[in-house]
Amino acid sequence: MRDEKVSQHYVPRLHLRRFSTNPDSNSVYCYDKQNKRSFPTGVDSTATEDFFYDGKTELVPEMENFLENLEGRVGTPYDKVVENQSISCLTKKEKMTIALFLGVQMVRTRGSRSSMQGMVEGIEESVGRENMAEEFKEELDEMKDEESLRELQNNLIKDASSDFANILAALDWHLFLNETDLPYYTSDFPVVRHNELDFGPYGNLGLRNRGVQIYFPLSPWMLLLIVEPSVYPDLPEVSDTTDRENVVFQRDLQVQRSNRFVYSYRDDFDQAERRIKTSPEVAEPLSERTNVE
After folding, report:
1. What order do you get walking across the sheet with 212-219 strand by strand?
2. pLDDT (tens digit per residue) in 72-119
């Protein structure tokens, strides 16, 4: 059994530290949607689970090593964007590193694994176990096993994330500087997608969908927006946001799309509480919801 790298973060600490309660601290405020309470928590002790990527019996933490390497490479370009308030300051290689970081983040979370579990359970519910051959029942039961879900997620991280990165890098990137009194939220599922266009049963949140928008809060006061350019052709590289309703909308995306936890640099979760009061299903794990991402 391994005795190193046991605690494995599914939201990188380099991201959560940007939402620390003050520049010298290593803590954030967290809102637990399931228990409906907020509390301060250490960056090192949240959005993490023991042996999340590499099981107890794996002697080499291969996936954790891969993620640590990526996080080590993305720190400089991440800081460069925030400090310069610019996308154009990035080299092509630095932009691709951020794109890979975002592609990985889309599939590395507990919420992603919860969604995979929900898809398997959805198949079981729609078909009905009584209508299944025994062999198919056994396959579904195996797919719901935590070890199988871990393996599936790890394969997605290694394979799909690079494809996602290439798509993201080819879209248009923009920064929003938050000039309001409301800080952006982040969450345990911080890279969220939205689309104003409706494609009916085909879905509208695919990275290649016309009009898709990808939001990632870089800090309480800065947000990265990646968009499919045919619908939004004239957005400036950097925009000052003074409209509180715009920030409220982006905070709400974090509340709705997150699996369980929402984070802020201050204890200001009234908006999250209101959303859960009006839409109680938002507090359920992603495995129990559909069409979230």
Report:
1. 192-195, 212-219, 222-227, 172-178, 238-241
2. 999 999 999 999 999 999 999 999 999 999 999 999 999 999 888 877
